[in-house]
Amino acid sequence: MISRVLVADLPRHVGERVRIAGWVHRRRQLKTVTFVVVRDRSGLAQVVAAGSGWPPEETVVEVEGLVTANPQAPGALELTEPSIGLLSEPAEPPPFDLYRPRLRAGLPTVLDNAALALRHPRRKEVFTIAAASVAGFRSALDGLGFTETHTPKIVSSATESGANVFGIDYFGRRAFLAQSPQFYKQALVGVFERVYEVGPVFRAEPHDTARHLAQYTSLDAELGFVDDHHDVMAVLREAVASMASAVPAVGVVVPEVIPEIHFADAQELIARETGEDPRGEPDLAPAHERSLSDWALREHGSEFLFVTGYPMAKRPFYTHPDPGRPGFSNSFDLLFRGLELVTGGQRLHRHDDYVAALAARGESGEPYRDYLDVFAHGMPPHGGFALGLERWTARLLGLPNVRQATLFPRDLHRLTP
Amino acid sequence: MISRVLVADLPRHVGERVRIAGWVHRRRQLKTVTFVVVRDRSGLAQVVAAGSGWPPEETVVEVEGLVTANPQAPGALELTEPSIGLLSEPAEPPPFDLYRPRLRAGLPTVLDNAALALRHPRRKEVFTIAAASVAGFRSALDGLGFTETHTPKIVSSATESGANVFGIDYFGRRAFLAQSPQFYKQALVGVFERVYEVGPVFRAEPHDTARHLAQYTSLDAELGFVDDHHDVMAVLREAVASMASAVPAVGVVVPEVIPEIHFADAQELIARETGEDPRGEPDLAPAHERSLSDWALREHGSEFLFVTGYPMAKRPFYTHPDPGRPGFSNSFDLLFRGLELVTGGQRLHRHDDYVAALAARGESGEPYRDYLDVFAHGMPPHGGFALGLERWTARLLGLPNVRQATLFPRDLHRLTP
């Protein structure tokens, strides 16, 4: 049997008999001829056959045929004089037409039938872009001397906060799903100086919103020997620029220097722009993030904006304070098109500072014993960030719901497929 | 302040004053002089200082000094006329000496203090080799047209079998931690044809052995449009060869064609070699795997051996039978230095075959409804494999316990750190 040719490679075989294999994307039977579009991982190809008798859409077939130039055909060529072989049973009709330019189905139907809906070229493309973005992320950090790590997802105590955590029965003991690799990546700065992890994190989000998931893919990085959070932001800029470069067709530009505004200045700007007065609030409202992004695009031509120096009150206990500005922190968010895409900052690195920070919040150090112990044994000034992959892809492609950028989403209501 | 130089780059700065930063790896105070070895992510450098007053081991410091050639010093150079700055509090002494060529501590102590033990250069190296191996795996599969995916780790029913699964309270419902991405990667063959995933899998292993973990990192791949399991084995060979090439210092050679022996022939060989008669057994005992590996090394000069055609009785229900040999399957294991490293094979791809396979095992199709549905909608012949990262690294480096190849292992007894 002649070996399989991918559809994308057909232009190199005009005039030859080849074998392609894929799914019957579309079958149109006319009076004396049938037009069949075959879909493989590389694209779509039209096959023209005399008569009828072709299997229904989504059946897997292999087709031998003559590659024939035809300016009217999609891609200006088609397969003629075909012979067909079935590689699957004739397929049952999917709950929506996969051959239409857009999936005509509501989000619940799309997600209930995710494995089929993902076959639609526009759905599929979301995840090839996500995969390329992750490759770009790793490539940037590998080039900067980072080491990739894999840390426990089953932990003995809640990491980020006591709420929103999934409990597990761990050999008869109580355990939890990790909400982030935060403590591990910090500890590993003591080993590798620079680490990253691409992996699942788990949040028992009780809210049913368009931007929260019970499991998402977190791109985490942490680095030692920083002066302050600006060293972390510089690495993040490289990572995001490399992610954007990995998907050139999307056309997002990350400026050489991403504009930056301090939280306090951002609040003043919002007050001037909107007439509202957010001063005294410890965080930014979603509408204010959008307003700041508009400002950055207008004033700096940038779709990205760093907001720095968030008040200590709203940041986690391991956040490093701004030594020059009481109440504020060496932390940042990166806004992208009106939405918080990344959170990061410098962390505390002295053991005594951790003990004091927990005491100030009225928390016992006991649940953090292993974590705190690391800081008693010599840890450099360090910081890091976490970027949600699904949020990135959704924002990049203008998808209104983060579930559209998740292969098989998990949320308050959804545990299958 | 002059910018930091990594220790590995010092040879380019002989005669210059530079700044290095890292951990006090070793401090030796003589009568009038102190020798300090500083450790950073790139290596070790000796600093020679008049007098005493240097902080204890593991304290994080920055040192400015003159790079001076000295044939007696490690690396033939040292920093003289140093001035020192503290970047952490003076460190508490670790529970073992990190500066000795080998960690003198038992495995429980090493694992109880993992974040510190990992600072030992020989411990650290295990995980830089693991990271490079994963990069090699991805690089091979990216080059072969695979797409990287991220699938749910929280699932509604046990995947591989009902046993050894962790239960979760999922918003008041019962859910489970995924034992593998098996069903998702198969479904995604219907979308991308070729997929891989690097991620955590979870096994509630009730056995306390040197080769089982409750969480490990699985390198999973699955590909469509195969003739049989040999197409899967060919991709696996490329992946493992790329992993080995990524760690050239380890010196493992993957043959162009990995030798292969059928399960039935393997049993006859074992009978001849050992005098035992394993025929009739549906699987290989660990001692028999070792014996087969010895044979492959002796007869074929290969540390890798494919055993193919395992009896259907011991393989999961989705295994494709050998159409020419009743009772046997189109499956394989890859043995590496006497241990099963990879399991894989061709899968069923017709809906009716799944229904029949489950019925033959007396299982209801209901828990597999979403999974089975995919096969009613056109799936090509396909197959795949799963490789345990920690097992690979342990075997590669001759570590007797897989926990030594895990940053922070999880097992029957261990939930921290």
Automatic annotation (TrEMBL), chains A, B:
Residues 182-185 are annotated as: Aspartate. It catalyses: tRNA(Asx) + L-aspartate + ATP = L-aspartyl-tRNA(Asx) + AMP + diphosphate. It is found in: Cytoplasm. The keyword Cytoplasm applies. ATP binds at residues 203-205, 211-213, 340, 388-391. Belongs to the class-II aminoacyl-tRNA synthetase family. Type 2 subfamily. This is Aspartate--tRNA(Asp/Asn) ligase.
